Amino acid sequence: MFLGNQHKFCWVDKTISPDYYNLIDCFREKTGVPILLNTSFNENEPIVNSPEEALNCFLRTEMDMLVLENFIVRR
């Protein structure tokens, strides 16, 4: 959501991003909602730019799960 309650919707093309498309489709099958909310991944710092930064952010916050490509890290 942007200032003024504006939204930016992005379409996912199955031929360009099949893994992301399948993730959204699996979520739709389980919940009936074909939408994922994508937010900035950071906490009082610049947005993460590497797997190492993502893992460091995960370890010092209260996130439940971190997914990096085909790897899942759970608490």
Protein traits:
alpha+beta, 11% strand, two-stranded antiparallel ribbon
Give an overview in words.
The longest helix has 14 residues, at 18-31. 32% of the residues lie in helices and 11% in strands. A hairpin with a 2-residue loop joins strand 1 and strand 2 (71-74). It is globular, with a radius of gyration of 14 Å. The chain has a two-stranded antiparallel ribbon. The protein contains two helices and two strands. The protein is of the alpha+beta class and 75 residues long.
SSE-based structural type: alpha+beta
Quote the average pLDDT.
Answer: 85
Total number of helices: 2
One letter per element, helices H and strands E, the order comes to: HHEE
Strand segment tally: 2
Distance between the termini: 28 Å
Task: Summarize the helices and strands and which ones pair or pack.
Elements: H1 18-31, H2 51-60, E1 65-68, E2 71-74
In short:
32% of the residues lie in helices and 11% in strands.
